[in-house]
Amino acid sequence: MVLNRRRVWKIIRIVWVTLGVASIFVLWFGMTTVDLPPDTFTSDARVEIVRGIQSIDFRPRPDNPKQTGLIFFPGGLVAPESYAPMARRLAEQGHPVSIVRLPYHMAPTPAYQAMVFETARDTMAASPRPWVVGGHSRGAMLATRFAYSHPARIAGLALVGTTHPREIDLSGLSVCVPVIKISGTRDGVARQSESEKFRHNLPPHTGYVQIEGGNHTQFGYYRYQLLDKRASIDRETQQRLVIEGLLMVLRPQGRPDCL
Q1: Within 10 Å of residue 55's Cβ, how many Cβ atoms?
Q2: Is 4 helix (H, G, I), strand (E, B) or coil?
Q3: What is the pLDDT of residue 253?
């Protein structure tokens, strides 16, 4: 009886470890890039691309220092390259974009979050201009924390596919700092019903873009996300609508009292 019990527990441990390893592989594989457009990372006469240790930068050619830039935090476990097509298209329209690399693709601890915030500040210091901060999913959570800690240093806030801010109150953010929140009606991860619970944490002047048929995964170019729903529009359509939404905060209508 003792031998059988030991054998049962050994089998349970083997199954448990196997399932754990399999789950990690499924998560990793799902978050890898897919269907990137050709020449996404090829510099040309319009965009210079620099793939650094802390970030992937898309720099317009020529660069106008008066044009607003975007510092973008990726979703948790998502390869930062998944947001490269979006970044390139914005850079082609004159807006530099810096996709911040997250340690372990998560920045899981306060110390790691401090590191990515330092990367954001370094980007701002290296290229003085108005900078919008934004992110997708967990990356949007990081963007809200950066905005909360540095309200005077940002020119806008862009939240994509997220229920955040949940634990942070940004309702008092200056009207001179435009805010946009972009969601998909088929998002099975950042559900709109959950997001609505925290609307009070955003300022009254926040703009909302709801992409009909858009899901969580198609906010980037990666394979799939567990718990997500199937989109009823294609990735290119969703990406085009995301870029239109981001341009609303990168090119806000001027307010005389903010000039």
Answers
A1: 21
A2: helix
A3: 73
Please report the pLDDT score of residue 224 as a whole number: 87
Instruction: Locate 65 and state its tokens.
Output: 């220092």
- In angstroms, rounded to a whole number, what is the distance separating the alpha carbons of residues 144 and 141? 5
- What is the mean pLDDT, run by run of 10 residues, along the chain of 259 residues? 54 38 39 88 97 97 95 96 98 98 94 97 96 98 98 97 96 95 97 95 97 98 92 98 97 70
Tokens of 42: 């090829």
- The 3-state DSSP class for residue 66 equals coil
Instruction: Name the phi and psi angles at 189, rounded to 5.
Output: -100, -55
Q: Which residues sit opposite 132 in a β-bridge?
A: 70, 156
CA torsion through residues 131, 109, 50, 124, sign: positive
Three-state DSSP class for 96?
coil
pTM for this one?
0.88
Q: In the block, which residue shows the tokens 């905005």?
A: 147
Per the structure block, which two tokens stand in for 183? 């969601």
- Contact (Cβ atoms closer than 8 angstroms) between residue 155 and residue 183: no
3-state helix, strand, coil in the chain (%, to 5): 40, 15, 45
